[in-house]
Write a structure and sequence with these properties.
The chain is built from 11 helices and 4 strands, in the order αααββαααααββααα. The chain is mainly alpha-helical. A two-stranded antiparallel sheet has the order 1-2. Strands 3-4 form a two-stranded antiparallel ribbon. Strand 3 and strand 4 form a beta hairpin. It is globular, with a radius of gyration of 19 Å.
């Protein structure tokens, strides 16, 4: 099991690096594909993956990413990128229409699950692409992985060595407060080292080492919430893993649960400190 998990983890990191290095439409399409799989996995938890609300979530996910990738295209002087909020409103109207016009076929719990799947997975995960297409985005996007995967690894190591006080014994009995602190500080240190190593790439940011330390430490906090939230959903619905796509790791939501929360936070912190 460990060998399978290690090999698939290495392959996953390599594919992530290649995708982000190429950037542009490739990053957009891969992120969209991950979002579609994630939406499917979450809808399957609520047993609606092949029903109308889930199908609407798949369709709106594709439209949403198309709008992001063609955001600068103008139609009669109006940029497509400015239509993302109306798109989300029309999605809510669409699934509510499916709810009321086919009542009582769908339960309100299923409709809320369909809305959450689109917003929680597709919209939140899209910030990976949004960061990548920013100016100098190829370097900023690495911060997401330092916060999420770095925090996860360092929290595990710190917890194994020093963990004594349970953080959430009912939800995740193996996680400790010491591991939580170690993961957050560790992610910050990774950001600091990253800033030192690539200092020349962030010449527009003063004291870049300290800034990246703060960004990564702050970004690690929602990573913990994302991880626990995904675990809570599984426990509430008696699900062990969201999927089997990644051998030894489970599904997209099992591996990218913390990143879903980290990506938007990193995006807005980067926008704030860089003025982009």
């Amino acid at each position: 099991m460990f060998k399978t998990r290690l090999i698939s983890g290495i392959v996953l990191v390599a594919l992530a690096f290649l995708t982000l290095w190429i950037g542009g439409p490739v990053t957009g399409l891969v992120t969209m594909a991950l979002s579609l799989v994630g939406v499917f996995e979450l809808c399957r938890v609520y047993k609606i993956e092949q029903r109308s609300p889930a199908v609407l979530a798949y369709v709106w996910t594709v439209i949403y990413y198309a709008m992001l990738m063609f955001r600068d295209v103008e139609i009669r002087g109006f940029q497509i990128g400015r239509l993302t909020l109306p798109l989300m409103i029309t999605y809510l109207l669409a699934i509510l229409a499916a709810y009321v016009f086919r009542f009582p076929k769908y339960h309100d719990r299923e409709i809320m699950a369909a809305f959450m799947s689109f917003f929680y997975v597709s919209v939140m995960l899209s910030y990976i692409y949004k960061i990548r297409v920013m100016e100098n985005g190829g370097y900023f996007v690495v911060l997401i992985f330092l916060c999420s995967w770095g925090n996860d690894t360092l929290a595990y190591c710190t917890g194994m060595l020093f963990g004594k006080h349970k953080m959430s014994p009912k939800l995740s009995p193996k996680k400790s407060i010491e591991g939580l602190i170690g993961g957050i500080i560790g992610a910050g240190i990774l950001g600091l080292l990253y800033g030192l190593f690539f200092k020349s790439r962030f010449d527009s940011i003063d004291h870049v080492e300290l800034v990246l330390f703060i960004i990564c430490a702050l970004g690690a906090v929602p990573a913990v919430i994302g991880d626990l939230a995904a675990s809570a959903i599984k426990r509430n619905n008696d699900v062990k893993d969201y999927g089997r796509l990644i051998p030894g790791h489970g599904g997209v939501l099992d591996r990218f649960d913390s990143m879903i929360f980290t990506a938007p936070i990193i995006y807005y912190l980067v926008v704030f400190v860089s003025g982009l």
